[in-house]
Design a protein that fits this description.
Helix content: under 10%
CATH topology: Methylamine Dehydrogenase, Chain H
Largest sheet: 5 strands, mixed
Distance between the termini: 44 Å
Number of strands: 29
Shape: globular
CATH class: Mainly Beta
Strand content: 35-45%
Strand order of the largest sheet: 12-16-15-14-13
């Protein structure tokens, strides 16, 4: 154990030393090679929908290079069998494999994206995640560390509530360890800074140079698999949301501090500049931007720094995307279908400077490294998406010139019989020394 930990710590330090050349598009792990120029593809992890096409979850590949003859077209669609509540995906640190999770079946699908970036291949399916992890349910965020994938769980198999853990695998797909979130009854050495230590989990991000890992919180299986309207009208269900962000020691996986961040904090996005020691998250139920920052004494703190829209109307903030220059935070709100740009040049006082309606509903937003291109998708959860005419399912590409968003193309996933478009990741031939079309 000592030898393995020492070896792994050395790998982490090597990654930190080369951080300046091992960064990624603005929302992914800092250990990956980055696409600083034009991306060739967007991989969209898509939920199968009853009565739509083959009804299966699938990885949809769209050509997004304006120089390509297939620009704006679906060039591949790989179904994985059944509906698993497809949700999040991410690459291994070498970016050769894309891991994608299913919240309901707990399956993890591993795709080879390096052999032919235009046509990913399914190479492995992990089916024993719950058993190996000791009862973790709902693989959500998949996050790359050197030679490792860290996976956040959203629930557990005992009561299907929010109590859960993070789970570590090797890049080869072998289980390594489970780290349960601290709770009131078992803080595991962490300091409880406020009222809550709920053990809930959602997203995960790291600042390697600060030996910092952060996790946020959401809700358990019994809520995210429930009809949205039914849940909103269930007082007990509305009590079952997380209110915490946890600070971890990145190297040892030891929880250090539990912050009160009430209202279900979701995505975490960390600043890129070496002098910027902070990360952002947003709260779904209270519509606020929170700053997790290091103070003058070197201690990490959590602070509510801005409202998103009108919190009284519960616009339901979902995805956020930070720019590579740490000056912009894009925030999507599901209920009103809006994307908002916040100026975060002063991270303690974000200011909304732009907004635009994308559709009747919107979930994910992904930004290119240079900030000139933004991509949007529609689906939140199968049982939470809007119904009827408002159930728009799409992938949209926009150009951003610093003042306005201009739509370049849109793909109607209902019309194309693909399903519910959820999360996006970028691909490029250049990552693997290949030329376009090869």
């Amino acid at each position: 154990m000592t030898f393995k930990l020492t070896t792994f710590t050395a790998a982490l330090l090597l990654g930190t030393a080369s951080l300046s050349v091992q960064a990624d598009e603005t929302c992914a792990s800092p250990y990956m090679a980055k696409i600083t120029g034009q991306e060739d593809f967007v991989y969209i992890w898509t939920l199968g929908a009853e009565g739509v096409g083959d009804e299966q979850d699938k990885l949809v590949t769209v050509d997004v290079n304006p120089q390509s003859k297939q620009y704006g077209k679906v060039v591949a669609s790989l179904s994985v069998g059944g509906r698993n509540e497809a949700h999040h995906s991410d690459f291994t640190d070498d970016r050769r494999f894309l891991w994608a999770g299913g919240l309901d079946t707990n399956k993890i699908f591993i795709f080879d994206v390096a052999s032919d970036p235009a046509k990913p291949k399914l190479t492995k399916t992990i089916t024993d995640f719950v058993a190996k992890s000791g009862g973790v349910v709902g693989p959500h965020s998949l996050y790359a560390l050197p030679g490792r994938m860290i996976i956040t769980g959203l629930s557990n198999n005992k009561d299907h509530g929010g109590r859960t853990a993070i789970v570590e695998y090797s890049n080869a797909g072998d289980y390594i360890a489970t780290y349960w979130l601290p709770t009131d009854s078992n803080l595991q050495g962490a300091i409880k800074s406020g009222k809550y230590a709920d053990g809930y989990n959602y997203d995960i991000r790291a600042l390697p140079r600060k030996n910092l890992m952060l996790t946020s919180s959401f809700t358990g299986w019994s809520n995210y698999m429930m009809d949205f309207g039914k849940m909103l009208n269930d007082p007990e269900a509305m009590k079952r949301f997380g209110n915490t962000v946890v600070q971890w020691d990145l190297h040892s996986r030891q929880p250090k501090k539990v912050f009160d961040v009430p209202g279900a904090p979701l995505e975490i996005r960390c600043a890129w500049a070496e002098e910027h020691n902070y990360c952002f998250t947003s709260t779904a139920l209270t519509s606020k931007i929170w700053l997790i920052h290091q103070d003058d004494k070197g201690e990490w703190q959590a602070k509510d720094v801005a409202d998103i829209g009108d919190p009284a109307k519960i616009p339901l903030p979902v995805d956020i995307s930070i720019s590579s220059d740490d000056k912009t935070l894009w925030v999507n709100t599901f209920m009103d279908g809006m994307t908002r740009r916040f100026d975060i040049s002063d991270p303690f006082h974000p200011k909304q400077v732009f907004e635009q309606k994308i559709a009747s509903q919107v979930n994910m937003v992904s930004s290119s490294w240079d900030g000139k291109r933004l991509y949007y998708t529609s689906s939140l959860l199968a049982n939470w998406d809007k119904k009827g005419a408002d159930n728009e399912q799409f992938f949209k590409a926009y150009n951003w010139d610093g003042n306005k968003l201009t739509e370049q193309f849109s793909i109607d996933f209902n019309k194309e019989k693909l399903g519910r478009a959820h999360q996006m990741r970028f691909g490029a031939y250049s990552l693997y020394g290949k030329k376009a079309g090869m």
